[in-house]
């Protein structure tokens, strides 16, 4: 257990800290907001609450001393060496678990060495956390990279209240069961008191996996695990609750940003630099094969080919954030997307009028808000996505009730934003129809849809999510034990 003196009543544990370290050519260190929905959501939630955040700084250098982040949280860096980044992060987390948890869109890779490193890194996270959590503290562990932390941490600190939240889907047992380490992963998670998921289906998949693979019993959302002879961690017997608590965004904060004159002016500038089109289509995603970017480009290419849309009247802006760039499937995807965009632009752009504006970059929040304001139709077409916060961000920014959202049925967000133009991205003909409908629908109809979606996003914002989650964790079925030796 690593103890650095100070301890906290609330500890967040996630693979990444809210900031990534970047060292420039002059050797100067800069801190940048880390990518992804987890950080967007948790950063705003923890801003009001304070506490410690245990996570990785995103490179292979030595871990800096703990420091205070912009939000007032105390950040406790965990170091990962080059081999650990390759085997734990790029390997087991993102080439084994990620594809299994996202419908095996690409084939998963299984390596015993990756698993050993996953275990070792999870143990390190648990040890650092055990050193910073105060007696009886609440520890909130996040996501698929850290599924062994709940049990490892409970073994070290039975006095803690431990929760885990799954930001991505939890797969059906037919897919989860492919994992050679399926039982170890389930036992790792059962070290928590409360397990939160994006959808009821995800919680149900987890409960079924426990029943079929571990022989647990369950009543509704409550699982009883009696343990096994080889249960070295001693987490069992335990009673654990698993339920859906869908994540959200700080809608009011984003709306306020979108209303500022600077953002509104920037939105107008963006439209002007695109040549003041009648319709701006927008996609914003990490460059990930789960996001359905290829399907979206295919639909747009066919619409151009059909003569239904053409630049400069209609143009697509596709923002694709660099992501996991050393993982083979992501390199392959980048190659494919670069090629598709090149072909579409070669065939359909004119001088000064691109059919697709493709931006492989990260932007500040203000620029994202301006892009959302500038877009007439937002295309969110993942093949599978735990939630998709971009869809909610678009809705929050449209205080003018303008715009239209085309949203894949295979996102968590589609379970809440029922008034979106829902689509099946595998059905290219259907997707094309939905895009055209979103462009051409009666404006009053569009306003009504946007209003209904906004009601949902504002009444179920990230603060409501955090309260629901933390209340469920506090009321979890088991009482924590006192610290051994007390
Ligand atoms: P994921 O967690 O899989 O990346 P989400 O849609 O849930 O997907 O969250 C993505 C988050 O990252 C959103 O808050 C979105 O605004 C932000 N984001 C996406 N692309 C960019 C970008 N190019 N620059 C800055 N922020 C981005
Ligand atoms: O939502 C899944 C997730 O892995 C989150 O942990 C994170 O928000 C996002 O994707 C970014 O991924 P990475 O940390 O691999 O860049």
Automatic annotation (TrEMBL):
Domain of life according to the entry: Bacteria
Molecular function, one GO term: trehalose-phosphatase activity
GO cellular component, one term: cytosol
GO biological processes: trehalose biosynthetic process
Pfam families: Glyco_transf_20
Similarity annotation: Belongs to the glycosyltransferase 20 family.
PANTHER family per record: BCDNA.GH08860 (PTHR10788:SF106), TREHALOSE-6-PHOSPHATE SYNTHASE (PTHR10788)
Identification of the protein by name: Trehalose 6-phosphate synthase
Organism: Ornithinicoccus hortensis
